Amino acid sequence: MILIGDKVATIDDFDHRMIQNSFERQVLETLLNSSVTHTYRSRGEVVFEMQFRSAITASARELYYSGAQFADFYKSRCNPMFWNLMPDGAFQLRQGVPPAEAIVDIFRNGRIYAFECATAMIIVLYKAALRMLPPVKFNTLFADIRLWGWKYDADLRIVHNIPSQYIPGDIRYVKNPDVNPLTPEWQGENIVDMGDGMYFGHGLGFRTLPGIIDALARRRRPGAMRMPYLLETATRPGFSYLYQFATMRLEQEQNVLLFDDQLENSSLSLDEYNKKQEELLKEYITIRFPQS
User: Fold this and answer.
1) How far is 79 from 277, CA to CA, in rounded Å?
2) Strand 91-93 vs strand 146-147: parallel, antiparallel, or unpaired?
3) What distance separates the 2 farthest-apart alpha carbons in the chain?
């Protein structure tokens, strides 16, 4: 269930303009049909989360096709024009380089880069944030990026817990308890839930969950008895927090401004305007629609 303010939302509260693809519809229907109450301050915040989750899956696909390689921390590589490679394998943003440009370079020149799966997930989240936020705001929020495992900027507001419900676009983890000690980098795999029964893991590509488990099982120590398994935890960015930095709020986009003869203005939703259009045209001298 979705609760916006004190009102329970239905599918009719979200017209086709707010749902850009089948993945976003799947996220919305998951939230609406849930026995768990998901609380939001506005309809725009719901749409922002839908779109952000879609951006996470799109960024995962981009990373896969970028050609970036899988490697442990000791064999990490990066583009020295944008990043300093630190002794521990971390990528530290070079001084004077805009963070947005450095993140984009990973996807543009992926073959120059190599990193492990946790770093890959953080890169995916940064790229998704860049899709959702103005570049200037992105550069302000993430001015000193350091990429190393699950190290990330506090403004991503990452939540890592056992959620009341799993939603497409979540990041999950498959643990490999009997990993071969010669390849400790395969002790587990961080994966993005792509929403269609497939998961993306850096180094493994797109596979079903059984496919991920099977790939890790092949990387166990000789004589191993325990199979890899999916942990109950999920990782998500702080959608509600990041929403305040979005280019436009959906509610603002959908509002109509009304001006009386004293040029005092008020606003109402586009749906409300459509219902009272004839009456409003008589009472107000100017009605300004938002830009499409």
Assistant:
1) 57
2) antiparallel
3) 84
Phi and psi torsions of 123, nearest 5°? -60, -45
For residues 51 and 119, the answer to whether their CB atoms sit within 8 Å is no
Distance CA 104, CA 81 (A): 13
Q: If DSSP codes are grouped into helix, strand and coil, which group holds residue 217?
A: helix
Query: Is the pTM higher than 0.70?
Result: yes
Q: Could you please report the per-residue DSSP string of 2-38?
A: EEETTEE--GGGS-GGG--SHHHHHHHHHHHT-SS-E
User: What interhelical angle do 43-66 and 22-32 show, nearest 10?
Assistant: 130
pLDDT tens digits, 244-273? 998 544 444 455 566 655 555 565 655 565
C-alpha torsion sign, points 158, 53, 101, 253: negative
pLDDT tens digits along 22-68: 999 999 999 999 989 999 998 899 999 999 999 999 999 999 999 99
Coil, helix or strand at residue 270 = helix
- Percent of the chain whose pLDDT exceeds 90: 71
**Per-residue pLDDT reduced to its tens digit, 96-116:** 999 999 999 999 999 999 999
Q: For residue 249, count other CB atoms closer than 10 A to its CB.
A: 17
Please classify residue 240 by burial: count the beta carbons closer than 10 Å to its beta carbon, then call 0-12 exposed, 13-18 middle and 19+ buried. middle
Q: What is the pLDDT of residue 277?
A: 64
The CA distance from 230 to 215, in Å, is 13
